[in-house]
Predict the 3D structure of the following.
Amino acid sequence: MRLAQHRDQLRQSSTSELERMLQEERKNLFMARRDSATKQLENPRRMRQARKNIARILTFIRQRELESAKGNG
C-alpha cells in the first residue's frame, strides 16, 4: 500500500480500528524480529516498515487525543 493511501486509511479509521491496527503491526514486528533471530527473515525491510507503521498509527491516535482535549478545554 502506498504511503498516501495508508495515511488516508488511517485518517478515516475510528480510534478502535486504529488500536486494532496497532496491535496487528506490533504482532508483525514481533514475528519479524523472531524470524530475524532464527535467520528466517526473507525481507529485512519488514521490520522497518512495521516500526514506521506503528509510529504513524500512534501519531494519529495522539492527534485525536489532543483534539478531544482541546475541544473539552
Observations:
- The chain has three helices and no strands.
- The chain has a mean pLDDT of 91.
